[in-house]
Amino acid sequence: MDLHTSGWKTVLSGWVDMISPFWPQIAATISISLAVVVTVHVTQHKRDSRAAAAWTGLVWLVPLLGAILYLLLGVNRIRRRARQLTGGIIDAADGWRVAAEAQPEPKHLQVLSRLVGSLTHLPLTAGNAITPMDAPGALQAMIARIDAATESVYLATYIFGNDAAGKPLSDALARAVTRGVRVRVLIDGVGSLYSLPPVIYRLRRQGVRVERFLHSLAPWRMPYMNLRNHRKFMVVDRQWGFTGGMNIRAGYIQSPPRITDLHVAVEGPVVGQLLRSFAADWYFTCGELLETSYCGAARVGDVQARGISAGPDADFDKRRLTLLASIGSAEHRIRIVTPYFVPDLTLLATLQLAMLKGVQVQVVVPARNNLRLVHWASMHALRWLVDEGAELHLSAAPFDHSKVMSVDQHWVMVGSGNWDARSLRLNFEFDLECYCEALAGQLDRWIDRRIEQGRHMTSADFQQMAPWRRVRNALAHMMEPYL
User: Fold this and answer.
1) Taking Cα atoms as reference points, which of 293, 297, 292 lies closest to residue 266?
2) Residues near 218 by Cβ (< 8 Å), separated by ≥ 6?
3) What is this structure's pTM?
4) Which of 47, 192, 194, 446 is deepest in the core (most CB within 10 A)?
5) In its keyword annotation, does this UniProt entry include Glycoprotein (predicted)?
6) N-term to C-term CA, the chain
């Protein structure tokens, strides 16, 4: 055995000695070959020319490492796996439409409703009740609804902390399991690691069925690390729902709070669309089929609503096209509240066109952000928008994680989606579009308070900004395709 091993070592050493003078040429050949292969793949599969250019530049300027990063982060394998499991309709519902679909009251918003209906293949449902809540109120309402559950509780979230917010909710879920309620919890594979130890171990000890979306600690088994399930909703007894931007974290409920957010309680037929979106994600994750029929009343309020379930699988660009359509439909005022505002050039140009036709555009972002790079990039994009006539307001502390858009005091969109490349291209998101003057008025008053308590930033403020800060912001904005 020793002689055999020694022989192999001699042969191997000989090969190394023979090719060692040619290592530079070999390395160059491998690097160039990988760059060419990646470039061909990028040109064939990337619809966004800026993303294609960014990835191409990376693989040529950073040999080998750029190709590895593209393999891990740039290749979208979700579409293929989704079709294997669901026939390609992972995010869409079953495509049903009603014969007499609800129509929004303002005539100019009816085109928007038809367009979003074509994008989602879902009807605009009438008779819903949508109740906005702050994060502490929403958490308490969710716990109360879980404690009253008799049939099922389905919860999906990006972050579920093992902390002062997550523990009471996990205890309520455990009590529901004890009563015989069917409980299913879906946590994003990356979001589940925000709290250590992860709450999944606590939930499993309590008998709660919990799964992690696209999770693996082994890089070679985790080719989806850049594609996250950012959705946040809960459906109880197939008739009550909650959705919005709130994660389950202690920062929302501590005193004083470190984060604020907006969540909504949902009643009415649109809950069926939340339910089907959860069922698709659950089936995608673990293969279990859930009952998706809505069990609530046909009419509990006056809000016309529709779910917009979008992701990087079969629903690419659904949210982005919805935003473009809503901006184009505006005749009077557009209001945007988001923690992360790094839109692409098309969205910026569409907002500019809206302002040119006389539409007032107001953008509210946090004065202090939890992601500095994104905040710097936002400031660069907002500088140009403010120069074109938009109003920029910086909301006061604590950090506001809310995501709300309002158009013409009648249409609103609330949910999990932000105005950045990650939400628009990489994440699985869920938003509600709602047509209701009363609800829009309520949320407009909520935005008014954000504006009153914040600071108005003008073109003069940007001009007075230190030159090095403007350069920093511009450099950060160059990373827009990756943010």
Assistant:
1) 297
2) none
3) 0.83
4) 192
5) no
6) 55
pLDDT tens digit sequence for 203-258: 999 999 999 998 766 655 555 566 789 999 999 999 999 999 999 999 999 888 89
Tokens of 303: 């809000």
Residue located via tokens 């399991």: 177
What are the residues whose beta carbons fall under 8 Å from the beta carbon of 433, sequence distance 6 or more?
116, 305, 306, 308, 322, 326, 411, 412, 413
Residue 155 backbone dihedrals phi, psi, to 5 degrees: -125, 130
- 478 token code pair: 């160059």
> Which CATH number is 82-113+123-304's, of 3.30.870.10, 3.30.200.20, 3.10.20.30, 3.10.450.50?
3.30.870.10
Fold of 318-482: Endonuclease; Chain A (3.30.870)
* Length in residues, the chain: 483
In 10 A of CB 11, how many CB atoms?
A: 10
User: What is the C-alpha separation between 338 and 317, in angstroms, rounded?
Assistant: 19
CA dihedral 307, 311, 313, 316 (to 10 degrees): 90
- Span 165-204, pLDDT tens digits: 999 999 999 999 999 999 999 999 888 888 889 999 999 9
Distance CA 429, CA 406 (A): 18
Q: What is the C-alpha to C-alpha distance for residues 212 and 479, in angstroms, rounded to an integer?
A: 29
